[in-house]
Amino acid sequence: xxxxxxxxxxxxxxxxxxxxxxxxxxxxxxxxxxxxxxxxxxxxxxxxxxxxxxxxxxxxxxxxxxxxxxxxxxxxxxxxxxxxxxxxxxxxxxxx
Length: 96
Fold this sequence. Notes:
Layout: E1 2-7, E2 10-13, E3 24-29, E4 32-37, E5 43-55, E6 65-68, E7 72-75, E8 81-85, E9 90-95
Antiparallel strand pairs: 1-2, 3-9, 4-8, 5-6, 5-7, 5-8, 5-9
């Protein structure tokens, strides 16, 4: 399975995995920041290695929460979120 994205500017691969999404994108990043954005449908973020930090900047008292290997983050359609990935990197799937 090919991972789209960059980690030291080289493609990343994963062992075969069965996922039940209409669409799934695979990423392998480090030292990244994704400014506030949203998706048109519910998305599920599955952390395969490393960690990422997410916040919902439009929420009152928004807090940053860090998730690691095995964690699943469901983000509702249209919900604005912002993401950071540190120097250790993160491999993850976003399924819709």
